[in-house]
Design brief:
Blueprint: H1 7-10, E1 17-21, H2 29-41, E2 45-49, H3 53-59, E3 62-66, E4 72-76, H4 79-116, H5 134-163, H6 168-205
Parallel strand pairs: 1-2
Antiparallel strand pairs: 3-4
Helix pairs in contact: 4-6, 5-6
């Protein structure tokens, strides 16, 4: 097993496999850029444990994730691909449950109609129809483009940060801006997931 602790030293050795545990922890921007560039050109296999989703998006091609039931599941792609796939699976499961509940409700409605001689929902089971608010509708229509723009900006800032390694004033400014963009991107991703879930529930209700 090869544990990558010193990228510069490792680049001088011929290895075909790297095991890395949280490799981006405590790395400055310059060292992180060196590590990522090295791994980009590395022809061997890299197995890493990391909570750094931006590092995972740039480096890995496959993710093995521990599920809630303790099983290990494989996902192709980086962290973003994994997050989207998980979200789609969870949404599909919730939609299936919603349809099952809708079927049960329809059966109850039929029984109520037989009992009361009326068609449709009895007054006591009528509810307000689920729909987007005006702001949610606007966000839903624009949020994917906003996320794509923020991802491009984060990538550009990362490149600029690596280029400004010797200019500490500019480096601090770029690092702060990059952190702000990443925080905003995370908020947008959470908002997007909420809106996608709401859209699926609205569709299931119709």
């Amino acid at each position: 097993m090869c544990i990558l602790l010193n990228p510069a030293k490792t680049m001088d050795t011929e290895v075909g496999l790297h095991f890395m545990d949280e490799p981006t922890n405590d790395l400055d921007v310059t060292t992180l850029a060196i590590l990522e560039d090295y791994l980009d050109s590395f022809d061997g296999i890299v197995i890493t444990v990391s909570h750094d989703r931006y590092f995972l998006d740039r480096i890995v091609q496959r993710i093995f994730a521990f599920e809630e039931n303790g099983s290990l599941k494989q996902y192709e792609g980086g962290y973003t691909d994994y997050a989207l796939r998980r979200y789609m699976e969870e949404t599909a499961a919730e939609t299936g449950e919603a349809k099952g509940k809708a079927g049960g409700t329809a059966g109850q409605e039929a029984a109520d109609a037989d009992r009361t001689g009326k068609k449709g929902k009895p007054e006591h089971v009528k509810g307000k129809k689920l729909k987007f608010t005006f702001q949610e509708q606007r966000d839903y229509e624009t949020i994917e483009a906003e996320i794509a723009s923020l991802e491009e900006k984060a990538e550009r800032l990362e490149e600029e940060t690596a280029s400004a390694a010797t200019d500490f004033v500019k480096l601090n400014q770029l690092t702060k801006e990059k952190e702000e963009v990443e925080a905003l991107l995370e908020q947008k991703m959470e908002r997007w997931m909420y809106l996608e879930d709401l859209a699926a529930r609205i569709e299931a209700e119709n």
